[in-house]
Amino acid sequence: MEPLTERQRALLKIIVGDYISSAMPVASELVAGKYTLKVSPATIRNEMAALEELGLVTHPHTSAGRVPTDKGYRYYVESLMEEAELPQVERLMIQHQFHQVELELDQWLRLAMAILAHSVQSAALITPPVAARSRVRHFELISVQEDLALMVLVLQGGAVKEQMLSFDRPLAQGELSAIANRLNSLFQEATAEQIQGKLNQLGGLERQVAEVLVKIVRQLDELGHQEVYHNGLINVLSQPEFSQVDRARQILELLEQRSFLSAVMPQVLMSEGVQVIIGAENPWEKLRQFSMVLSRYGVKGEAAGVLGVLGPTRLPYWRAISTVRFMAQLMSGLLGELYGER
Q1: What pLDDT shows up at residue 256?
Q2: Which of 44, 186, 233, 309 is the most buried (most CB within 10 A)?
Q3: CA-atom Rg of the chain in angstroms
Q4: Which of 223, 247, 276 is the last residue of a domain?
């Protein structure tokens, strides 16, 4: 595309900014009266027509006002938007909120979603951090009944899984603890394949417990990043774009499909920094009415997840990008502590 003139750049920035805040098509008379471009409404109309020929804006129905296209939003994000960090007071407040919760991954995920949804006023998305291969940190066997025990498994990265085990004979807590201690020393930081490789060294109850460990860890590896948590749906449904029942149903169905991020997940996990995917840029057709601002977070070589926001293409991109970037940095630091980084 040929370069825009300074006047066209200024006008496109006004159209995008005004439409994001008002959800109303931007008319030349409004621009002339509200902004100091020092040109007549007729000149502004001519420039709007030029921007429309370039595919950066369009006019809905018979409205004389213009709205940005996906291409216009992309030009704005890459060439016109002034990037900045979140204000320091907001960053300090967010950090304080994390210091108030327990040192548990699940608590961090829930708080990160709530902060993203509130800050950007959109739907927040997050996948739990997943290792290339899940590794056992520690597990306990807790007696429930004479022949029944609860396995509580903690993985590297802090994820906790529980599984009931039944045995052929009654087992006291002391015997269960002895089995757990023996296997913990044998399987420290082991993957499912490494545990499987040592099964022949075991017999009886130890082998039975180890086989359950293999099953749980393999299930987690197969699940991968399909597990997607979301928050802030009400923020999206309150936007004018979703006032129609069909559009509201569309996003409800979308967020209920846990695998809907699978089309963009590899791209985000392999990239550094914040990724902005606007409307038709989405590889999955059902996402092409939305924009997503996503980022990888985690500990390099250990585990990674994705967090971000989803909303209409009329998304407040500056705030979305700055908030997602900060939250990814914060979550990466917290995970680094779990993995022993200093």
Answers
A1: 73
A2: 309
A3: 26
A4: 223
Structural domain includes residue 199: yes
How large is the average pLDDT for residues 51-74? 90
Do 122 and 257 sit in the same domain of this protein? yes
Both 293 and 276 in a single domain? yes
Distance CA 291, CA 236 (A): 12
Structural domains in the chain (count): 3
Q: How confident is the model at residue 309 (pLDDT cuts 50, 70, 90)?
A: very high
* Residue 235 shares a structural domain with residue 315: yes
Residue 68, domain CATH = 1.10.10.10
Q: Does any domain span residue 1?
A: no
180/143 same-domain check: yes
Q: Residue 157: name the closest of 305, 328, 320 by CA.
A: 305
**Structural element, H or E, at residue 295:** strand 290-299
> Span 40-57, mean pLDDT?
92
Buried b (16+ CB within 10 A) or exposed e, 33-59: eeeeeeeeeeebbebbebbeebebbeb
Burial classification of residue 126, based on how many CB atoms lie within 10 Å of its CB (0-12 exposed, 13-18 middle, 19 or more buried): buried
From the list 326, 290, 328, the residue with the least C-alpha distance to 89 is 326
End-to-end alpha carbon distance in the chain: 47
Same domain, yes or no, for 231 and 124? yes
Which domain range does residue 273 map to? 88-128+227-338
CB within 8 A of 341, min separation 6: which ones?
Answer: 299
- pTM here is 0.74
User: What does the alpha-carbon distance between residue 88 and residue 76 come to, in Å, rounded to a whole number?
Assistant: 25
Beta carbons of 228 and 305 less than 8 angstroms apart:
no
223-227: average pLDDT:
62
Q: For residues 309 and 123, is the Cβ–Cβ distance under 8 A?
A: yes
Kindly write down the DSSP assignment for every residue of 175-221, as one continuous string. Answer: HHHHHHHHHHHHSTT--HHHHHHTGGG--HHHHHHHHHHHHHHHHHH
